[in-house]
Automatic annotation (TrEMBL):
Lineage, broadest ranks: Bacteria, Pseudomonadati, Pseudomonadota, Alphaproteobacteria, Hyphomicrobiales
InterPro entries: AAA+_ATPase, ABC_transporter-like_ATP-bd, P-loop_NTPase
Protein family (similarity comment): Belongs to the ABC transporter superfamily.
Domain of life where this protein originates: Bacteria
Residue ranges constituting the ABC transporter domain according to the UniProt record: 3-228
Official protein name in the record: ATP-binding cassette domain-containing protein
Length: 303
């Protein structure tokens, strides 16, 4: 089932939080929804879930706005604010209340507690939970109806390394079963290891919508690192060939815009022995910061 936004806009008084966003999210893959703080990610997800109304445009699931879905709990599950649970209800009762509302039985509650690794905390009250446990409970709630579409706002926040691995492999396994997975983050490093596709927004507007591989190809540069005791000789050969390079250490050069076979071939022709020849890609986080710098609303200063 596809999620589609078309001309989606949300204004709060004079402030435009989401500004004419159009994109689609496909089933069978994990789509990362990325943007700096205040970019409009949560506002977009809230419109998708029918919690707030768009000022203009629409966002639909399988072609329909959420209010028109026949079985909302079986169609879409969401984790927005993991701490927004009744503080006095045990984890079990919290899930049971949602299960009843969705017409589901107790068996599903037990299964979800197990899946989220919360079986031992079933009778604990959430006010004793860590943020990671809240996230697990939130995911268990989102998955109660075994929905086709899963929407997660910053799901990795507060999880320990084991929790992060668990959340990622769960998303991967659901995507491989054909589910539609949309998850937001303001960290490119998270996206790099989790997402197949990326939707990047800044100041409410679309900045990029592509596969992660295409994003990397389009927005990051690479250099060839070459290490040799004959650095000067290699530098002369590169210079004669009109190639751009930078000395990094007494035995190391970074060659821009080249591929390793070309640098290796040149070294072989000169009879130079290489100790290392590697392609280094610019960190994706750097590309993200460059792309979103002009639209970043909140920026700290280094002391
Ligand atoms: N209810 C509201 N009233 C007025 N402005 C709002 C409201 N909700 C959000 N905004 C503003 O809209 C913009 C987008 O906010 P939103 O929370 O959607 O961003 P976000 O990308 O989710 O950010 P973060 O990563 O910090 O959670 C921000 O400038 C925010 O201050």
């Amino acid at each position: 089932m596809c999620i589609r936004a078309h001309g989606l806009t949300k204004r709060y008084g004079g402030k435009t939080a989401v500004d004419g966003l159009s994109f689609s999210v496909q089933p069978g893959v994990i789509t990362g929804f990325l943007g700096p703080n205040g970019a409009g990610k949560s506002t977009t997800l809230r419109m998708l879930l029918g919690l707030i109304r768009p000022t203009q445009g629409a966002i639909t699931i399988g072609g329909r706005p959420i209010a028109e879905l026949e079985h909302p709990a079986r169609t879409i599950g969401a984790l927005l604010d993991a701490r927004a649970v009744h503080p006095q209800r045990t984890a079990y009762d919290h899930l049971l209340a949602f299960a009843h509302a969705a017409g589901l039985g107790k068996a599903r509650v037990d299964k979800m507690l197990d899946l989220a690794g919360l079986s031992n905390a079933a009778t604990s009250r959430p006010d004793q939970f860590s943020l990671g446990m809240y996230q697990r409970l939130g995911l268990a709630t989102a998955l109660l109806g075994d929905p086709d579409v899963l929407v997660l706002d910053e799901p990795l926040n507060g999880l320990d390394p084991e929790g992060i691995r668990w959340m990622r492999s769960l998303m991967r396994s659901l995507a491989s079963k054909g589910r539609t997975i949309l998850f937001s983050s303001h960290l490119m490093s998270e996206m790099e290891i989790t997402a197949d596709n990326l939707i990047v927004i800044g100041n409410g507007r679309l900045i990029a919508d592509s596969s992660l591989a295409e994003f990397i190809k389009a927005h990051t540069s690479t250099v060839v690192l070459v290490r040799t005791a004959a650095r000067e000789q290699l530098a002369r050969a590169l210079s004669d060939a009109g190639m751009r390079f930078k000395a990094i250490a007494s035995d190391t050069l970074h060659v821009a815009g080249a591929d390793p076979s070309c640098v290796g071939g040149m070294a072989a022709k000169e009879g130079i022995t290489l100790d290392e020849l590697t392609t280094i890609r610019e960190p994706l986080e750097k590309a993200f910061l460059r792309l979103t710098r002009s639209v970043t609303q909140y920026e700290g200063q280094l002391a």
